What does this fold into?
Amino acid sequence: MTAGSGPGTPVVAGGLARHIPVLARAAIGYLSVRDGGIYLDATFGAGGYARLILDTAGSAVLAIDRDPDAIAAGADLVETSGGRLTLTQGHFSELDAIAQAHDIAATNGVVLDVGVSSMQLDDPSRGFSFRHDGPLDMRMGADGPSAADVIAAASERNLAAVIATLGEERHARAVARAIVRARREVPIRTTAALADVVSRVVHSRPGDIHPATRTFQALRILVNNELGELAAALAAAERILKPGGRLVVVAFHSLEDRIVKTFLADRSRTGGGSRHQPEIVRPLPTFTVLTRRPVTAEPSEIAANPRARSAKLRAAERTTAPPRADDVASLLPRLPSLADILRGD
It folds into this structure.
């Protein structure tokens, strides 16, 4: 996520923002960029991290983004990089396959800046923001069902489960009930219409986040399979990093950060058992964690860039152990699939 604001700029989803990479100094420091290194910026966005990596002479970057608008906007940076930046459209869950398709067998570093970008939030036509009326879309790519499709088809039970789990909304049942009631009268096709429905049942005090914030977050995460993409990307990074290569992940809410924390804890664990039980045989650790606690933004960065307030950075270094073959699905919350939700099951 790239973000920023000036005085008086809203700090919640949908606020205006300059494209400032969050925790940039820490991210580049933990990547330990060096001359001749090859790095994956797996969430290109506005290119903030890629630019900083390229500041090291001789470094090269393969940058990935699923958003065709981000790819188009990055064309100038590709042109001025002197052949050191390659930009490609794709899902970061497939970052190892994308790298190999570009003849990169292994990389010195992978950086993931998880979540929606400022450019997406600030474009009303993308439908991410309740502060700008637009079509209720929320897709980061150009395909698949939209948020409006989910709102139109999902059962009240599934809507409540999604909003409670992915939005961490305490009033999820009331919100789901209000959505189902409203759509019987007229289809909910715009961001303003959905925000209005939610605001009737979720009330906030001055200074609180907008009542629709958590519902919008839940729908966005669902439509884009953001948590599944993140879990798969972590495993893909494990496969593509060289021994000594660095993984840096910047997450913006607890669901994302919990997945990263759990993955790195599992992949760095050695041994087990106690004096009462025999030693547990575990696979060799594939990562050494570099951040005992997540790195957070300094007050000065938050003042200049309010969206940095919730950012947490975790970093780890790849060991020489072979990548694990086990499934990362256990990292994900249990919810019906998007296909099941769209069937109204």
Q: What stands out?
A: The first helix runs from residue 24 to 31. The mean pLDDT is 89. The two ends are 33 Å apart (CA to CA).
